[in-house]
Design brief:
The complex is a heterodimer of chains A (about 525) and B (about 700). Chain A is mostly helical and about 525 residues long. Chain A has a domain of about 220 residues. Helices cover about 65% and strands about 5% of the residues of chain A. In chain A, α14 packs antiparallel against α17. The radius of gyration of chain A is 23 Å and the shape is globular. Chain B has about 700 residues and is mostly helical. Helices cover about 70% and strands about 5% of the residues of chain B. In chain B, strands 1-2 form a two-stranded antiparallel sheet. In chain B, α3 runs antiparallel to α10, α3 packs antiparallel against α20 and α12 runs antiparallel to α13. Classes of the chains: A mainly alpha (about 525), B mainly alpha (about 700).
Chain lengths: ~525, ~700
């Protein structure tokens, strides 16, 4: 353990940065940018420090003692208000193998998105202040272990995102921003209801022996904490845990985004500025799947077991449907957006397997999709900055004009296609290994394998349309990558290649926790069987 | 040599080309001479692989050396126990022979390309890609497990994609590269699912461990059908890579790549990877799986041979002949003639590489003319090319004294034996018909290209024999197409070291009830199930040897004679024959219309369907979202109106009422005490009347 509260620092350094940004005068654009770069850079350094001090053998998931870098303080305390009883809410942070990869991902993607924001020219101050606030919200979601705190961070990230799309976006930015906002808020309402339902169903025993209602996620995973008559208590024969599960799942599914809740994504991506697309695809989408693993799975293990076939089904739909929709797109950015839908389907499929290989694959896929898709959106940004068009048929032969750029594109595209040796393949393969091993979802897995064919088809077709063939003379002025663009693309390419060759670097972090989770879902939670249905 | 030295050497041999690929791709622009480094590393690798082969065969002939390491460790997994994924390499005789073949041809192609590709804008990058390919191919050869096989399998696909589309500015080239990759992926899905079945059942990818467990009677999901399925699915990978029907369509298109690439990748090595894969999993193939493999192979060789009869592009003829010969190898594995399949892989690699490089030499001399109808008489201008091309043609046609005679004869004998034991006579029938067609179309190619009179005088006059670096590889490869390297007796392959000592058919691990009858240990003469093929198969093979040889000599001679009659001596007019069987001729010329079928049934359909889904997504799914937004807005409008007129109306009304009442009572507030007194008195009176206490 470290001598300083590393998770709090990780989470709130961007807020410090934001305060500095707000204090700077509006015309000091350069200072504002460097402040943001410094804040996100520090975050990366801290994430690396965290990884270096990480204990690979600690399970976490449901066991507080094996969580790492824990910070736990009483945050809100309201003594005895009539029937509510004493309200006690903790500021409770900690990481395990499920969240550490996401913390790393958030730090890396935020840093690269800051670099990618360098060209923002109108209201720089507002942009970076909101950007940094967004960063805090995202990081907070991944380190919070208290449902209330989790919810606060979840909502915190929503507002800056709304403005970042709505102000700095493309032609239909207002529509896209409001769609994103309302859609996510719609999901949050469900989450809020379930959260309150859980609060009144479980009681935590304090040090002094008294019992209070709790938002503590780990306490909610322990069935001995549930009251006899709580609405979401497994001991209550009339509980509505099934409905709550669906509601909570829907809230997370919107973020993933899972079919049929995915249509906000293409709009948001097409309208959002490049760095925001990078954040959106790189980090935000993972919150949905992370939330399911962190909250839905261990709190409702018995319903998870009942519904695994359906989760796999939606995973399969995402994979195939997303890929086919991507194939029909004419807009480069929209195509990448739909490819995200397809690739997040693998995460769902891996999670549905409830097996070590499958869930490891799912989390690794979350990380890999974060880096690969971030790179893809940066690539779209590079070409859009230069040509101000994203039409797939407007280009041709750029390989001759921009060979280095084309090299990076090839790496990113083949990573997305799932070429062995690059990171995307490892996670996809593990997802398939895990899902195929489970009898009831084997057929769905076999159908999902079509996704790797469709992925190759639309990606290579795109590569051909933009980069191969004779150079379209209209673009013979386009410059190859500049230094800043190198700085954004090289780290991602290195990560993609490194994790393709040596995936254990990431898998070792998550593996112990995944084993704990799998064990918990199958054995440790055996008493969670009094399903309300 | 120590065992560890073997493994270190083979790892060096494996990574050498990768290293030079990385150096050349990163610094190739700055240092235009880097291609020499890449070529040098291949020459060095070749020398090492020769060493490896010599030492392996002289010192460790019957041993299998292997080395592996943990790649991913899942620790103690609930319900499964300790689970890990290992990668590793394995050296047996087949491996070292393949290493030698791959390195030799790769080296010769490098040398050939030095001249052939001279002046290309991306000269360095071309050599870098060749290095990447060599690395990937060596990975396939060296692997000891299915997962690593799949990894390098895909990497080979990548390098093939890059090299087919090397001249990416040509639409046809980038189309061909894309087609190759996607068609291969179809097969790879099957391959991958097959691997998944294996891993789900045995929790390991290692060949040795999987076979050991199958040998102990452990079946995937406790069912022989799943074992058959695993075999067939893994074979699907070979169907893609080795261009078997119905996935063979990418190979002829792949000829868009530079010709030396066609020689290396699309004739000698990569396309043989599928055959190599089947040899690796040969021992776990059930009777059903083998029969399907045999049928696919036989049918493929037939389809491709019929197409090759009528093609006019020199490279297309060779491409279809490659497909046809690969079909032979696959068929051979299907009927159980394991050693001959691998033997044919090796001999074919040499003579087909020679043919392709020879065609490269012709194309080079003719200034990128590929249509044989514009050639003719070239033997005078290109004497060495002609001679080497002729030797290789004799080999592929199965003429005695060549290597092709030995291996083809073995395969045909294998099919005959199979036919006699199982009654599947159609397979040998296909085999011999294909032999006839092969001899015919290959000699047609030779005669039309090199004999007769020049059709294009201008190009002919400019043609001249290629320089030394291009001719030398041809000479080496054609020399290797002679029998002497493989056996001292030109009519008996089993008398030689290749078949009798180096490559032996491994022992099957499939449970008895899933084998062919003649492979069961109860079959006559069988000793404790120790050998893959029962004595009855060996006996049948022995009996089939001379009939097969006689028959194959007859059909080869017939094919050659027919070619001479039609094209050299012009006794039969080819156009007349074509006119007589017009529908068949068109069918062959248009490649059985398979591409057209795929275009209409698969590609168009997929695109239409994807277009429909995109519309559905945009209009219906997103439409629901937008409609619910509209409904919400409408509802809010209604609520708003309700609020304004009803709720607020009520509020306003009450306000109005109170105002009205207030207004009416205001008059009473006169401020005069007298008036108030009167009100008080009247009120009391009224109250009294109402209450009426009296």
């Amino acid at each position: 353990m470290l001598g300083f509260p590393i998770l709090t620092l990780l989470t709130f350094i961007p807020v410090l940065g934001m305060i500095v940004v707000l204090l700077l005068p509006n015309d000091r654009a350069k200072e504002i940018k460097y402040t943001s770069l410094l804040a996100t850079g520090l975050q990366v350094v801290l994430a690396i420090v965290l990884m270096m001090n990480y204990n690979f053998n600690a399970g976490g998931v449901y066991d507080e003692s094996s969580f790492q870098f824990i910070e736990k303080f009483r945050w809100i305390e309201i003594p005895g208000i009539s029937w509510l009883g004493t309200v006690k809410i903790d500021y409770f942070l900690g990481v395990d193998g499920l969240s550490t990869p996401m913390v790393l991902l958030t730090a890396i993607i935020s840093f690269i998105a800051t670099l990618s924001s360098w060209n923002i020219s109108n209201s720089v101050k507002g942009y970076f202040a909101l950007f940094l606030l967004l960063d805090t919200g995202m990081m907070g979601v991944f380190v919070a272990l208290d449902f209330f705190l989790f919810y606060v961070f979840w909502e915190l990230m929503l507002l800056p995102m709304y403005f970042l799309i709505g102000i700095w976006g493309g032609p239909r930015k207002e529509y896209a921003a409001i769609k994103f906002f309302i859609y996510t808020l719609f999901g949050s309402v469900f989450m809020l209801l379930v959260m309150i339902g859980l609060y009144f169903s479980a009681q935590e025993t304090l040090v002094d022996g008294s019992k209070v209602f709790t938002f503590n996620l780990l306490a909610l995973m322990d069935q001995s904490n549930y009251t006899a008559d709580g609405i979401l208590s497994p001991f209550n024969p009339n509980n509505i845990r099934f409905i709550a599960y669906i509601a909570l799942f829907a809230g997370f599914a919107i973020k993933i985004p899972m079919f049929p809740f995915h249509t906000w994504l293409p709009d948001a991506h097409v309208e959002a500025p490049t760095p925001i697309s990078v954040i959106l695809a790189g980090v935000l989408l993972k919150m949905g799947t992370y939330g399911i693993l962190r909250i839905s799975y261990p709190i409702f293990p018995e319903i998870t077991r009942d519904l695994m076939w359906y989760i796999a089904l939606f995973g399969m739909i995402n994979i195939i449907y997303g890929a086919l929709c991507a194939m029909a797109q004419k807009d480069f950015k929209k195509l990448i957006a739909y490819s995200s839908v397809s690739h997040m389907g693998y995460v769902l499929l891996g999670m549905a397997s409830l097996s070590t290989t499958g869930i490891n694959g799912a989390i690794l896929q979350m990380f890999n999709h974060g880096t690969i898709t971030a790179m893809l959106f940066l690539i779209v940004g590079v070409i859009y900055d230069r040509s101000h068009t994203r039409g797939l048929d407007d280009f041709g032969g750029l390989a001759t004009q921009m060979p280095v750029y084309t090299g990076f594109v090839t790496i990113a595209f083949f990573a997305a296609i799932g070429l062995p040796g690059l990171s995307g393949w490892v996670s996809e393969a593990l997802v398939f290994v895990g899902a195929f091993g489970v009898d009831i979802i084997r057929v769905l897995t076999m159908i999902s394998a079509l996704g790797i064919l469709l992925g190759a088809a639309y990606m290579l077709w795109t590569l051909q349309r933009i980069f191969l063939g004779k150079l379209n003379e209209k673009w013979n002025q386009l410059a190859d990558l500049d230094k800043r663009e190198y700085a954004m693309l090289v780290p991602l390419a290195v990560i993609i290649i490194f994790l393709g060759i040596y995936p254990s670097a990431m898998l070792d972090i998550m593996n112990t926790s995944v084993n704990s989770l799998v064990d918990f879902l199958s054995n440790g939670s055996a008493n969670f069987t009094l399903s309300g249905l | 040599m120590q065992e560890i030295t073997f493994l270190q050497l083979s790892i060096t041999v494996l990574f050498l080309p990768l290293l030079s690929f990385l150096i050349v791709i990163l610094y190739g622009k700055k240092f235009p001479k880097l291609y020499l480094l890449e070529t040098g590393s291949i020459i060095l690798g070749f020398a090492l692989s020769v060493l490896l082969m010599i030492f392996k065969i002289s010192q460790q002939l019957n041993n299998t050396l292997s080395f592996n390491m943990t790649w991913i460790d899942f620790g103690n997994v609930p319900m499964l126990g300790h689970l890990k994924i290992e990668l590793g390499i394995m050296l047996d005789n087949v491996t070292v022979l393949m290493l030698f073949v791959v390195y030799l041809i790769s080296m010769l192609v490098h040398i050939f390309s030095l001249e052939y590709m001279r002046g290309d804008r991306l000269y360095n990058r071309y050599f870098a890609y060749l290095g990447l390919f060599t690395f990937s191919m060596l990975g396939i050869v060296l692997t000891d497990n299915l997962l690593m096989m799949y990894i390098f399998w895909e990497l080979v696909g990548l390098s093939s994609y890059l090299l087919i589309g090397f001249w990416y500015e040509k639409k046809s080239a980038s189309d061909a590269g894309k087609k190759a990759f996607i068609v291969n992926r179809v097969g790879d899905i099957g391959f991958f699912l097959g691997i998944l079945i294996i891993f789900s059942a045995y929790n390991t990818f290692s060949f040795a461990k999987v076979f050991e467990q199958i040998g102990m009677g452990v079946l995937p999901f406790d069912s022989g059908a799943w074992l058959t399925a695993a075999g067939i699915l893994i074979f699907m990978g070979a169907v893609g890579k080795s261009a078997q029907f119905p996935l063979h369509v990418w190979l002829p298109d792949a000829m868009e790549g530079p010709t030396p690439v066609s020689a290396l990748i699309h004739a000698a090595t990569m396309v043989a990877a599928g055959v190599y894969l089947v040899t690796r999993v040969f021992v776990m193939l059930t009777a059903d799986a083998m029969l399907i493999i045999a049928v696919v192979g036989a049918f493929t060789s037939f389809v491709a041979a019929t197409i090759a009869l009528t093609q006019n592009d020199i490279k297309k003829v060779l491409a279809y002949s490659t497909v046809s010969q690969l079909g032979y190898m696959i068929m051979s594995l299907g009927v159980g003639a394991y050693a001959f399949a691998f033997f044919h892989l090796v001999t074919h690699a040499f003579f087909k590489a020679c043919l392709f490089l020879g065609s490269g030499s012709v194309i080079h001399a003719m200034h990128h003319e590929q249509d044989i109808r514009n050639m003719g008489g070239l033997r005078k201008k290109l004497p060495i090319t002609y001679l080497t091309f002729l030797i290789s043609t004799l080999a592929i046609s199965g003429v005695p004294l060549t290597s092709g005679f030995l291996s083809k004869d073995g395969i045909l004998a294998g099919t005959l034996a199979f036919g006699s034991l199982t009654g599947h006579w159609l397979i040998p029938a296909f085999g011999f018909i294909v032999a006839l067609m092969t001899a015919f179309y290959m000699f047609r190619l030779v005669i039309v290209t090199f004999h007769g009179v020049p059709k294009n005088k201008e190009k002919f006059d400019h043609a001249h024999e290629s320089p030394f670096v291009m001719v030398m590889p041809l000479v080496v490869l054609s020399a290797l197409s002679l029998f002497i390297w493989y056996t001292p007796l030109p009519h008996a392959p089993d008398a030689g070291w290749f078949i009798s000592d180096w490559v032996k058919t491994p022992q099957t691990v499939v449970p008895e009830n899933l084998r062919f009858d003649f492979m069961k240990s109860s079959a006559p003469g069988e000793i404790n199930g120790e050998v893959v093929h029962s004595a009855s198969y060996t006996e049948a093979l022995h009996h089939a040897h001379y009939p097969a040889m006689a028959l194959s000599l007859i059909v080869a001679g017939l094919g050659i004679l027919l070619a001479f009659l039609m094209y050299q001596w012009k006794k039969i007019d080819p156009d007349l024959v074509a006119g007589k069987v017009k529908p068949l001729y068109d069918f062959s010329l248009n490649k059985w219309y398979i591409d057209e079928f795929y275009d209409a049934a698969v590609i168009k359909f997929t695109l239409k369907f994807s277009g429909f889904l995109a519309w559905f997504d945009n209009t219906i799914i997103d439409g629901i979202v937008n409609v619910s937004a509209v409904i919400t807005r409408l509802a809010s409008k209604i609520v708003d109106l309700f609020d304004i007129y009803i709720v607020d109306g009520f509020v306003n009304f009450s306000a109005f009422i109170s105002g009205f009442i207030g207004l009416s009572f205001r008059r009473m507030q006169t401020g005069k005490v007298q008036t108030y007194l009167v009100f008080v008195v009247f009120s009391i009176l009224i109250l009294l009347i109402i209450i009426n206490p009296f």
